[in-house]
Design brief:
By secondary structure, this protein is α/β, with parallel strands linked by helices. The chain has a domain of about 325 residues: Alkaline Phosphatase, subunit A (3-Layer(aba) Sandwich), CATH 3.40.720. It is about 25% helix and about 15% strand. The strands form 4 sheets. Strands 2, 3, 4, 5, 6, 7, 8, 9 and 10 form a 9-stranded mixed sheet that branches. The longest helix is centred in the middle third of the chain and has 30 residues.
């Protein structure tokens, strides 16, 4: 009898040990294999907050002492601020497709805008971030600007409705998501600070509203700015019209900040701030000529702030070069979801959160083809270290304007008066660009001194050209054919 009890005790002890080991081990949630259930403890909530046309120029945390963005500044103080974060295309729809797919738009059919007659659309074969997270057990919800297609590719379980110009109202509508029993992925996208309708004012020198209204918005404190006080970025002309438009732009950004603050307050009230990763980005640069729709630095170099409560180091500034094509694998990594890395063009940069170390993130690529369908001007970019190469594939064409940027009083103040310069650039050089542009960004941050035709930079030029070709091959870029009619990426139907 003693032997029997002794054996039972041993078996019970071993069972307890095994159960203990299984409890301590945090299983990952598999997308391409057997799926395990998620728990609030093992899987963090994730909020991806995306502004519309918000550049590095208009955030206190990035050095602007005039604009009032206390809530976003607090996020930077509590998290990691990236100073070399890039979108791949400075165009709303094209950029958002990359954010949610982890692939460059030239490989997914997302060449430009999706709305009206533009009608670019992502291939049905693409599996997007919200779909992958939903399969892994996440509650996925979106609110505000969507601007991708088709819906079945970019499907969210829950769609919330609110005025995308009133971020406080948007935050209030997210209450049900924040209360979710399952881990959630909230895709929160504002219309601010995009230019507002009408794009073409009755008087040409009237500043665009950037969504601002005289009567303001419910529960939003209207923060206005004196045009004399704003900071004019170095690439823009310092005119009365430019200053007036920047003042409107600032006001729209301050509205974003209030809604963001409201959302964070609600998150804390639910007791979920300690298990929620918050990411703040913009889809592209400020809606001014020389930024949005361009691959110049003001168009593609953007704010990126990440707060991960599991990372104890705060107030970090990272110089790692990260890209919006990296966001999908990064978020899957943060969500502890196993995925096939070969299915994405981007790479998780989770390891850089909370550290100043760049790691392997010393190079980025950009790919722009269309904004509006009438704006065909494909450009490919590589930035490696401090050198940046732009390939203007359609360089024989005049550089096209987005309709809202053309009508802007900022551009019209130069165009109507036949001024020779737009900011530091000659208008002629702004409109007619060389095939290749090579810049040393450390010495020439405004991209004014093109080194492409200088003999001493010939080797650097050729090296970066080869990097572009390799990038195009790896990402199935159809525009690789423009290198000496290279049809290596064409399908069997090329000669049919």
């Amino acid at each position: 009898m003693k032997t029997i009890f002794k054996n039972i005790s041993v078996i019970a002890f071993c069972t307890i040990v095994l159960l203990s080991c299984n409890t301590n081990k945090q299983p990952k949630n598999v997308v391409d294999g057997k799926k395990t259930s998620l728990t609030k403890i093992s899987s963090p909530n994730i909020i991806l907050f995306v502004a519309d046309d918000h550049g590095l120029d208009a955030l206190g945390a990035y050095g602007n002492p005039v604009i009032k963005t206390p809530n976003l500044d607090k996020l930077a103080a509590e998290g990691t601020k990236y100073t070399n974060a890039y979108c791949t295309s400075a165009s709303c729809a094209a950029s958002r497709s990359v954010i949610l797919s982890g692939k460059f738009g030239h490989a997914t059919g997302s060449y430009g805008h999706v709305h009206d007659y533009h009608h670019f659309s992502t291939y049905d074969s693409i599996t997007s971030l919200p779909v992958l997270l939903s399969k892994a057990g996440y509650e996925t919800a979106r609110i505000g600007k969507y601007h991708v297609a088709p819906e079945k590719v970019y499907h969210f379980n829950t769609v919330l409705e609110a005025d995308p110009r009133n971020t406080v109202e948007m935050a209030n509508k997210c209450e049900s998501v924040l209360k979710s029993d399952k881990p959630f992925f909230l895709y929160f996208c504002t219309d601010d600070p995009h230019r507002g309708h009408p794009f073409t004012p009755e008087e040409w020198d009237t500043p665009n509203s950037f969504g601002n209204k005289k009567e303001g918005y419910n529960d939003v404190n209207t923060v206005t700015y004196n045009p004399n006080d704003v900071l004019v970025p170095s690439f823009l002309p310092n005119t009365k019209q430019t200053r007036e438009e920047i003042a409107q732009y600032y006001q729209s950004v301050s509205r974003i900040d209030q809604g963001f603050g409201k959302l964070m307050k609600m998150l804390r009230a639910e007791g979920k701030d300690k298990n929620t990763i918050v990411i703040y980005i913009s889809d592209n640069g400020m809606a001014f000529p020389g930024a949005k729709t361009s691959v110049d630095e003001p168009g593609i170099k953007l704010p990126c702030i990440i707060k991960d409560p599991s990372v104890k180091v705060t107030g970090v500034t990272s110089e790692a070069m990260v890209s919006w094509v990296d966001l999908t694998p990064t978020i899957l990594d943060m969500a502890k979801v196993d995925y096939n890395k070969n299915k994405f063009h981007g790479t998780s940069f989770k390891e850089t959160v909370g550290t100043e170390k760049k790691g392997n993130f010393t190079e980025i690529y950009a790919s722009h083809t269309f904004h509006e369908i009438t704006m065909y001007y494909p450009m490919r970019v590589v930035r490696s270290g401090n050198y940046k190469l732009i390939w203007n594939i359609a360089y024989r064409l005049e550089y096209p304007f987005a309709s809202d940027l053309w009508a802007s009083s900022t551009w019209q103040s130069i165009y109507r008066t036949n001024q020779p310069y737009f900011g530091p650039k000659k208008v002629q050089d702004f409109l007619f660009r060389p095939e290749f542009e090579l810049y040393d960004l450390d010495k020439d941050p405004n991209e004014l001194n093109n080194l492409a035709n200088k003999q001493e930079f010939k080797n650097k030029l050729e090296n970066l050209k080869e990097k572009l070709k390799e990038f195009q091959t790896k990402t199935a870029d159809p525009w690789k054919i423009m290198w000496n009619h290279d049809a290596s990426l064409q399908g069997a139907g090329v000669n049919l």
